[in-house]
Amino acid sequence: MRKKKIWIVIFVCLFVFTSYVRPVDAGRYYYSGKLKGGVSGRTWAIAQNTYNLYGRTVNYYDAALNAIYNWNSINPTTTSNVDVSFSHTSNFSSATLKFVIDVQEDVFWDGAAAYFDSNNNPMNPYSDLGDWSSAVICFNAYYTNLPECTSSMLKALAGHEIGHTFGLDDVTLTSDRYKLMWYETGPYRASGITTDEINWIRIIYSN
């Protein structure tokens, strides 16, 4: 799948950087950072519900909502009964997870995530120490509005990028291609949360 609009330069740079395929250390599928304050009792918002391109109107709100529903009620720790819980808010600026739709035709990603500290400064999950306070997830309509991007694939893409904002890295081994965190959009990637994602989340949020 495939990419254009105006965003702050550092934002776009982060998108491009985090979309590169990177070998994952054996047995390690997570960043050094995670979502500050945990993944319970948080909010999400979307800048616009639909986007029209190529004569198609794609419902991005439902893709984000379904992905959020998949993540909600998963217990992220081994020491607490509190599940992942994100509720929708119309207050976009205050949301922990923010979804936007953009058109980036000169890049190769169909979805990406950017991370920000409490002062709204961008963070790089590979090199910056510490946890991020919020994240922005971008759907690249240049690819995701194409007919071959099915609703199931769009839901999987949203769930995959949410996983990144929680602290999960891509998986790139062929044996992992049926997991949600598989790095490529396509028919292999799971549209729901697998036991591996749950186990990795528990490693992150139990520490």
CATH superfamily: Collagenase (Catalytic Domain)
Give the low-pLDDT segments: 1-27
- Please indicate the count of domains: 1
DSSP summary: helix tally = 5
Largest sheet, in brief, is: 6 strands, mixed
**Rg measurement, Å:** 16 Å
CATH architecture annotation name: 3-Layer(aba) Sandwich
Give helix % range.
25-40%
What general outline do the C-alpha atoms trace?
A: globular
CATH hierarchy, class: Alpha Beta
Whole-Å distance between the termini?
Answer: 36 Å
* Topology, number of strands: 8
CATH-assigned fold name = Collagenase (Catalytic Domain)
Mean pLDDT reading: 87
Strand order within the widest beta sheet: 4-1-5-8-6-7
Strand content: 15-25%
**What letter string, H or E per element, gives the SSE order?**
HEEEHEEEEEHHH
Based on secondary structure, the structural category is alpha/beta
Protein name: Peptidase M10 metallopeptidase domain-containing protein
Organism: Acetivibrio mesophilus
InterPro entries: MetalloPept_cat_dom_sf
GO molecular function: metallopeptidase activity
